Each structure stands twice: as structure tokens, then as C-alpha cells.
Amino acid sequence: MTQVDKLYEYLKQHGSITGLECMTELGILNYKGRIHDLRRLGVQIRAVPNKTPNKDGEVKPYRRYYLEDRTTSNDIECNRTISAEGRA
User: Fold this and answer.
1) What domains sit in the chain, N to C, each tagged with a CATH number?
2) pTM, whole model, 2 decimals?
3) Rounded CA separation 49/43 (Å)
């Protein structure tokens, strides 16, 4: 299973993901590249900016990426396309 496939399946199951979750849960370091790949394949992903304090109390920005429509009819076709791409 490619990184694009893993990310897409995770988004379908959970609905959203952060960069940190991509790295720790899926082992995808270049998560922005994989999100770009999904968008290029027609998957609608929305990035929502958030902020959270770090261990030193400084507020740091991050983004949570949401799968726009988890029940589209394009879902099956998109999954075939992703698997056929053979990307990372």
C-alpha cells in the first residue's frame, strides 16, 4: 500500500488528520506532498488552521486536514486511480 493510499484510507476512516498524526500514525514525513497528490487526483481536502501551546507555553500554529465529502460516488474511482498511480 502506498503512502497516498494509507493517507486516503485514514482520512476516510477518521475524517481528518494533522501533520503530526501523519508522521506518528502513518509514518509519512512528507505529508504535504501526499496531500498534494490526493488533491491532484481530485480528492477534496480542506486545511483548517489551528493553534496550540507547546511545552514552553508558546502558541504554535498547525493545520488539520479534513476530507470534504466522505461518501462521494467518486470514492471508488478515486481509490482505483490512487492505486494505479503507484506513488510514494
Assistant:
1) 3-74 (1.10.10)
2) 0.76
3) 19
